[in-house]
Structures are given as structure tokens and as C-alpha cells.
Amino acid sequence: MTGDDAVTGDDAVTGGHAMTGDDAMTRYIRRAAALCAVLLIALLVNAARVQVVQSGTYEENPANRRTLIARYGQPRGDILVGGRPVTGSRDSGEQLRYERTYRDGPLYAPVTGYASQVYGTSLLEHAADSVLSGTDPLLAPLLPAWNDLIRSRTPGGHAVTTINAGAQQAAYEGLKGKKGAVAAVEPATGRILALVSAPSYDPARLSGTGSAVARAWQRLNGDPDRPMLNRAIGQTYPPGSTFKVVTAAAALDAGVVRDPDAPTDSPDPYRLPETEVRLTNEVEGCADASLRHAFAWSCNTFFARLGVQVGLPGMTAAAARFGFNDGRLRVPLPVARSDFDTRMNASQLALSSIGQFNTRATPLQMATVAGAVAAGGSVRSPYLLERTTNRAGDTVGRAGPRGSRPAMRVATAARLRELMVDAVREGTGGNAAIRGATVGGKTGTAQHGLGNSGTPYAWFIAWAQADGSPQPGVAVAVVVEDADARRAEISGGGTAAPIARDVMRAALGL
Amino acid sequence: MIPPGQTAADPVPAVRLPRRRGIEFTLLVLAVLLCWYGYCAVGLARSGAVPPGATGYGAGLGALALLAHLAVRLRAPYADPLLLPIAVLLNGLGLVLIHRLDLQTPHDRAAGTQLVWSTLGFALFIAVVVLLRDHRLLRRYAYVSVAVALVLLTLPGFFTAVNGARIWIRIASFSFQPGEFAKVLLALFFASYLAANRGALAHTGRRLWRIQFPSGRVLGPVVAIWLLSVGVLVLERDLGTSLLFFGLFVIMLYVATGRTGWIAVGLLLAVLGAVVVGRLEPHVHSRVEDWLHPFASIDAGLGPNQLSQSLFAFAAGGVLGSGLGLGHSTLIGFAAKSDFILATAGEELGLAGLSAIFLLYALLVERGYRAGLALRDPFGRLLAIGLASIVALQVFVIAGGVMGLIPLTGMAMPFLARGGSSVVTNWVIVALLVRISDSARSQYDAPAPP
After folding, report:
1. Domain that holds residue A288
2. Which chain B residues in 329-348 lie under 8 Å from chain A, judged by CB atoms?
């Protein structure tokens, strides 16, 4: 041992100390080995920390693209209209692999929304995302832990809508070249049959990751016509004369008007309470008119005074029963809140009662009003998503009809049905008549903007009952921004009523 | 064990020492099969079919392993039977991982080159096992090797920096890292120098307080080594190699002398050097900052840096991994096949696979230490410890770096990572360990060579 040292030993001391023998060195080697063992343990413990203990926080980090890669790693489930998918998936071969495609994108855009790799999801694509992307636990009820273990991802399920393809198409055709919206519901159930907003856009342009997607996003967001705005549920408009249905229901329920055919002592023009403002009418014959006449010819003076007679508590309660002032409605897309002011003086109440002042409603809200009249006075909460299925088509979730609540007395609803039928048969809504069906409707023109300088909105709300059918099958609301609306002609009947007629005819299959 | 006085050449040994070559062969077959299976799994996962090159890959790796096995069987029959199979398994797995990453980076294919380098590594392994009859012969070349090592280390300073570190020599399209070869040469020099001077280092010099300081004569070379590692750090911005040299030196010094005072002095110098350089050198400083705040770039809105991508990859692996070919470690970017190769293993093989890889390295190191323990000559012992420690330190520095345990330093994962110089060097290390382990068991009483 020490002899080895001596071979190179120019160091005289070496020979004198023979203590660094084998045993000592063996001890040092063992200690060095222990150091290596410590390093190994440090690596293993750290690996467990990164891969198991803290893996959740790393995986949830928004900068970690794996979540996105997994999300787009399989075809997205489809949105179905009338049993046929209106969406699809395309294998792009990119890192975020499957891109959304749309059949008739602009037609169904207010229903589907977009599903973009870059800009996320909207509308039904957003509301049903967990099912469509396959993350909903309902899709894999058996052993989710097993799926985690073998890293399999549940294929995306489908979302079945309540939309009626014919009604949707008719509404889309009717609004072509215009700015406006259509909402149609089935009064007895609340199923949304049509949801159209114009101008529309093709959501397929937002699928994928290329620079074209960014340009499309810029262009759509910068467009002054706001094509991505879903006007049917996401925008409120002054409902104008169509709100007179609510006012009439409140008056009949409250007993302010008992006989719709009895003449009243309502003045024309009508001086708004506590002001010098004189409200006039577009038509003759409103002085001392009966409710039936005033409804058919849309007398502003009559209904402004009627609202004041009912009073603020009665009017706000009636509006609330129809669904106003409720911002919680989800169909499951969030629906903008329709407003009827709860704190007003008498003159403001008078204007609110004819759908002006601060009264605002979504087209879906006004379709619900028409539907309540058609369904004997009860409001069915509208819904768009019928059910969700797994990839194979088996139902995993059912939205179905929700509960109904009364908006007015049954007798009041029957009276209003007559009044609305008269308005179509003899009054301002003549353009909505359908052969083979009973149609009730109400026109409206809403002024807005400073000094009424904005383009007026032409409204029409209606319901239709096919001959031989036990109950009305469709209720619809149409709003069109109508630059040509002349006040004298009550443009709701001219522009909006034909669209409503086509939608109702398609919905009834006539 | 062989009783004293008996040599391996004795005609009738009382107890025949098992050579264990059959075990080695069996393990080699398993290692090759495992790598072949991994290659097929990548193909099945990526394209749904067994890749056409699978047979060639398996046969090629098998042939190389067989040749290496024959060399060991003929020239080092008493060698440790685990060393070669572990090296083959790690090398084969590295090829599979690089091939798997190639499939997602078609513009930058590396598996072919790596295969050529691996073949060269096998060839060097065989050459060392066949030509080097006794490790003690190497002691003659101690000062030659340190001179060569110094030249190799200073050369890249004259070449352009790549990714912030001057560790490459580029000639035409051919590039290699001389620092990789230098570590073996330095281990050789350390072993020889320390074996000769350990008595003096341990017992001469002045005692100050409780620590014994060595005399200037023996201190000189030690300070020179310290300066060398700091010099490497400053000139080549290569924190990893510097750390490796210093750690290697401290371990070997301790094993040779047993003086903890040395370790204290060494660590003090290392910390001093690291702090000064960490302050002054922006490249090193940024690595420390990244280690302390891996998500700083995300918070700053600049997106994840390589270290956070690496952590994401490991985290995505979980316990069982995504399966070969099914991870997304290419998100790491340009060094995914070299410094960050372990992230691919971590993501696709999971904590289970990663632990297995760590344990393979641990087994390799342990076998090196075991050979060192069994030997008698201090040079051989120190060389075995030094070579095994190189592997241990290198695995710790790079694995700890890519997993956020210590600041990240560019280094190749032995056998796994892309990099010709590294794979060749590691084959030489394994060859030397094979030779030493063979000596440890067979040449107990053989006389020292002239």
C-alpha cells in the first residue's frame, strides 16, 4: 500500500506516515458514496414534488399550452338543429389540432356563437362547452379516475337545440339586408324556435390560429354594424307600442277596464300629468275610444292614460310577471335584462306605458309577452338547449321545459287574444295574416335618440294558431331598424309584420 | 474470495470466482429489447404503426451490444456485469427519445447523427477494453493528460459563443465540446496526483485553529485547479462544467486525504467564486434569477421560458406519464433534445420512468464506487471514484437544473442527451470502469506494471 506511494514519493514525509491506509480510505469512499446517495434522494424527492405534489399548479398555469392542446386534440362535439349538425370539426394538422367548421355559419351564428382557438367561445359554444369539449363529468360517469390513469379523454358530446330550421331560415331571409332581430318561441313550452340577428357573420372565420383569424376578429369588432352582437337576446330596444299588450293586461287584471268595447273618456291629445307636454296620436278616432279600438289602432293617448290609471305598483308588478327587470335569465345563454323603471313620476309612467322613456326589452322578452297571451296567460321560461348527448347520441342531460308562472288571469289572456286577432284582422297588423291559421299581433314603432333623431325601430309581436290545432304553436317578436319608417304609417305593420308572418308560417309548417 | 497468495492463473482454484458473463448477456438482451419496444411504442403512438426502421434499430443496437459484450467476455471476464447493460439501456433509450422528438421537429433531425456517435462510443468502449490491459498503465500519462485537458478547455475560447456559452469547437459543420473529454483526463490526473501526494496533503503544513493547512508545495496544484474552474466559468460562461470540475476535485481530495478541512476550504472557495461570478457575469446571473423565479417571464407577459416549459412537461407526466410519443415536450424549444431531454422522459414515462432512470444512473455510480472499494491500489481506487463521481455530479447538476432544484446549467444528461462528445466520453468512462472492476476482482495480487 504505502509502497505504491513511495514509487512517486518525492515527498519524504509519505513514508513516515502510514496511517492513510486502506481502511481509512474505504471509510472516506463510503462517505463520498453517502453524498451521492443524498444527491439521488434529493433528485427523487424533487421529482415527486414537481410531478405529483405541485403538478396541479403547473398544469393550471395559463401559460401551459397542454390544456389547450388537449382541448383541441379531438373533434369538438356538434350543435344540432332539427337533428342535423350545424357545426363540424376539421383536422388542421396544427398543434391545436381540430378547428371548428360551421354549416350556414351566418344563419346560426346567433345560436352557436364561435369556438376559436385564439378568442375562446361564445353563446351556445360557450354555454355547452364542457359537453362539446368532452370535459363534462356527465359524459364519463364510469370511473373518471380510470380515465385519468390511462389518460384517455372523453370524446365531445353534442348539444341538441330547440331551433326550428325553417323558422330560423325564414327569419334570416326576412332580415337580409336589414339591421334587426327575430326571436320566436313555442308558447306552451318556452322552446326557442328561431333566434336571428342581422347583420350576422360567419363564425368559421374565427376558427384556427392563423393571422387571418386575428384580422377577422379585428374587422368584426371594428365593424360599426356590430355583426357579433346577438340582438335577439343581447340587445334591448324601446319596445314602443308592442308594450301596450303589457299595459292592457295590467289594466284588465286590475279592473281598470272591464268591458273592452265600452267607450272611455280618454282625451286626444292627452296632456301628460304635471307637465305641459301634449301627447298625440298617429291616427284619428282615439278620443273616447274603447280598448278594442285603441288597441287595434295603437292609440298612444289611450294607453299612456291607462298606465297612469293602473298606477306605478300595478304596472311594475305586471311587467315583472312578464319577465321584465330580471337579469338572471339563462337559456342557457345569458339574456340581457329588459327594463321597466320602478321609480317614476306620473308623466314618466305614462310614457313608459307606451314602451317609451326608459322601457327597454330584448326581442326574446317581447316574444315571451306574445307567448304569454297565446298560452292562456302563463309565461314559460324560454330555453334554447333541449338536451345534451354523448358522442353516441345517448342523452346525458336534459334541459327540457321549465316551470310556468302566471303573467295575467286566464280571462285577461282570452280578451287580449281577441284584441290581438282584431289588430291583425282589422288594424295595423294586417300584413301578418296567414291563410290556415289564426294570427294575433301588435305593431310598434319606437323612437329613440336625442330628440328622436335615431333611426326608428319597427316592431311586430305576434302569435299564430294553426286551424285545427288545440293551442297557438308559435309566438314571435321582430324588430327592424327601419330608416324608412314614416310615423304616419306605423311601420311595424309594414316592415316587421311580413317577417313575423313568414317565421310563423314556417314554424307551423304551413 | 481468493485466498492470499493465489492468482487467477492458479491451476486448481479452491473456489472458482464466478465471472457472471451470462448475467451480463441476459441483461443486455433485456436492455436491447426494452429499447426496441420503446422505439416501436413511439411509432405506434405517433403514426399508429410499428415504424419500418424498428428491425434495423433493434438489430443494430443488439449487434453493437453483442460486440461490446464479446470484448468484455474476452478481455475483462471478471468485470461487473451491470455496467455494460446499464450503458446500453441508457444509450438506447436516449436514441429512442431523440428519435421521438425528431418526429415533431422534421427540420432538425438528430437521431441519425446520435446513432453515428453512439457507434463511435461503442467502438471506443471496445478499444479501451481490448487495448488497455491494466488501468495502472494510465498513471504514466497523468501530466500529459492534464496538459491536454488544459488545451482542450482553452480552445473553445477562441471560437464563437453558442447560446451564451463558449464550449464548442466548430470545424466546418462538425462540432464538439472538448470540455467533455477534459473531465476524464482531469479525473485521471487528479487520481494520479492525489494517490502520490495524499500523505503530504493530509499531514504536512501548518495547523491554524482546528484546520490543518497544507504547505505551499502541495497547495500549488490545488489552487491551480481552483483557478482553472473559475477560469472556465468566466471565459466560457460554462457554469456546469466549472461546478463539475470543482465537485469532482473536492470529492477526490476528500477520499484521498479524509480532511474535512479541505472540503470546508474548497466549498468556501467555490461559494466565493460562484458569488463573485454570479454578480459580475450576466449570463450566470440570469440563470440564478430564472431558478429563483421560473415564472417571472410569464408574469411579465413574455410567455414561459425554457425552465417553466420544462417544469410544465414534468408536471404533465404525473406518476405514469403520457406514454412515449404522446407528450408535448417540444414546447421547450431548441434544447429539448440536449439539455432538456430529461423533460421528455419525465413527461412521457412519468415519475415511475424518471425514477427508474435515476436509479439506473445510481446503479452505475454505485458499481463504480464498488469497484473502487474492492481495489487495493490508491490510484485505481481514486480513478474509479472520480469517474463514478463525474456521472453522479453530472446527472445531479443537469437533472436538478431542468427540474428547478438548482440553477440551470447547460450540460448533457449522460448517454440520454443529444451530443456526440458527451456520449463518446461516457462510453470511455464505462469502459474504464469495466476495466477497473475487472482488475478489482481478478488482478488482486498481480504486480504493478513497470
Report:
1. 234-508
2. 331, 346
